[in-house]
Structure formats: C-alpha cells, structure tokens
Amino acid sequence: MTETAEKPKMKRWGRPLGPEETLGLLEASVVHREGALLALSKPPSLPVLGRPGELSLVALLPVLRRRLGLPAELHVVKAPARECSGLVLLSGCHRATERLQQFFTDAHRRGQYPATYHAVTVGVPAEAEGEIRTGLCWQRQGDTTAVVPVLAPGRRSLARKEVKSTLTRYRVLGAAGGCALLQLQPRTAFPEQLPVHLTLLLCPALGDHEHSSRVGRVLGVPFLLPPEAAPTRTQVLDEELLCRLGLSPQQLRRLPLHLHLQQLALPQGPLCAPLPPFFLHTLQRLGLPGLREP
Questions:
Q1: Alpha-carbon dihedral of residues 168, 130, 200, 290, nearest 10 degrees?
Q2: For residue 7, what are the CA distances in angstroms to 25, 30, 41?
Q3: Closest CA to 3 of 34, 47, 29
Q4: Are 64 and 74 in contact (CB under 8 A)?
C-alpha cells in the first residue's frame, strides 16, 4: 500500500529552519510508505549526518519515526548531499537496507543509472546530451580541502585510489535566456561530483556557491579556471538574470542549490520526488519547462 502526502507549502527560502519547522516539512514531504520502506523529499542545505550539534536528518529521525507511528528505527539507504534537495530512502529493516544498498552497487557495476537528478544551470551546454568523464580527487587548498577534476588521471593514481574515474550522463530538457534545465544521471558516486561536472560543461548549477567561481567569463564567453585560482564565493550573476529571478544582490548568497534528486530506480519500480516549490518558482521565472508528474 503506497501513501502519498499532500505537497507542503514551503516558506520562501532564506531563513534557516529550526528543528520543529524542519520536522513538519519532512513529515509533510513523505512520497512513499510501504512495509519497511519510507521515502521523503529533503529540503536543500539539510545534511544527512551533520557535524556535532548541527541540525541533521539523522538527528531528527527518532522524532520523525514516532510522529509517523513507525515501529522500527529508521536507517538511511540513499540520500542526496547536504546542499541538494530530493529523495531520501529510509528503511526500518536491516536486511532490506543491505539488499537495497547491494542493488545500487550492482546497478552501477552493470552500467546502469539508478539515480536521476534535475538541475537549473547558468549557461546552456554546447551539446543537447552527452557524458562528462573525468577523474576527481580531494586537493588541499590553504586551510581547506576541495574536490577538483583530474582530466587525465594516471594508472598509478587510480590504482592507489588517489583519484577516482567518474561519469555523469546529461540531457538538456529545456533552455531559455542563457539558462537550462538538465537531467543528470551519475554512473559513479563521488562527493560533489555533479556540481563539479557541471563546471566542466561551463554551466554551473544555479545556487552553487562552492564551485561556480571556477567558470569565468570574458566578453560573455565562459572559460574554465583552475580550482586554485577560483576561491569559494557567492555565485555571481549578471543584472539581467538577477532581474529575471526577482532577486537583489543581497539575497543571492541565500539562493539554494538547484540540484534535486528526482528519481531512484528500485527493484519494485521507480520512486519520484516532485520538484520543490523554490525550484518550480525558478523554472517559471526563467521560462523553463516544468516536469510532468510521473
């Protein structure tokens, strides 16, 4: 038996939500409930684990379980990264959790693409569809570490697992005014893979305040900067795009990442999470096509 909750009305983004508001949003965002499985749609900027003392999904699960009347402790099977929104797959059964995690591992080995994301990008890829292949690794930059591309990784670095070969398939679903709606299907899993891959297309995700500075522009033509020459900063958008989005420069730093885990392929069929209200609002403002409900 599948239960689908009514879509919650989200408040305008900008102010961080407290525990009670976040719990209410998660409770209203359940998209699937069957047997030991529960799926919901997470808001952007909510980490799954989080740092000590930080509000996180895992910290809220015991209260969420009681509110939903679930008998067993919930475990995270699959979830998007902190800054992303979208599907979180939870299980109340250890055996079911292990089976599903093995299913995703086997799917990747068979060359399948079990996860489908949607992104709004600043820029339109030169090709309507294609693949992004590159090595990725962690690199020390001052007092922090960052994920950087390694375009031609050597065999030794790959064998020592200093670099991981990564692959994402993409397709342009629509474009308008220099922005695009993309479908992204990662074949591999590496932290920050999708935002970094989008910079290699010279089309950073809207709301990417971590990697978008790696794409520079001269006379309107984008080019790729080396990571060490592109420190992290609030995404820079031109006045025309800010106007189309209805944003002031002061609001820009709170613009959420427009990268949403929309679908997971499971043995029993696909699970989908509708695009969140802020994402749909952006599509409307930019004149990009919306997605039909499955």
A1: -80
A2: 9, 9, 10
A3: 34
A4: yes
Under 8 Å between Cβ of 48 and 57: yes
Residues in the chain: 294
Segments of the chain scoring below 50 in pLDDT: 1-11, 293-294
Q: Dump the DSSP string for 227-268.
A: GGGS---PPP--HHHHHHHT--HHHHTTPPP-EEEEEEEETT
Compute the Cα dihedral for 98, 293, 116, 82 and give only its sign.
Answer: negative
The pLDDT tens digits for 26-51 are 999 999 998 889 999 999 999 998 88
**pTM for this entry:** 0.90
- CA 97 – CA 273 distance, rounded (Å): 20
Q: Which amino acid, one-letter code, is at 48?
A: V
- Give 224-279 pLDDT, tens digit per residue: 999 888 888 999 999 999 999 999 988 998 999 999 999 999 988 899 999 999 99
49 token code pair: 């684990």
d(CA 188, CA 294): 25
End-to-end CA distance of the chain: 18
The rounded distance, in Å, linking the Cα atoms of 222 and 123 is 9
The residues facing 43 across adjacent strands are none
**Looking up tokens 């990564």, which residue turns up?**
166
Helices (H) and strands (E) in the chain, counts: 8, 13
Angle at 233 between CA 280 and CA 150, to 5 degrees: 95
Residue among 125, 228, 34, 222 at smallest CA distance from 236: 222
Phi, psi (deg, nearest 5) at residue 78: -150, 140
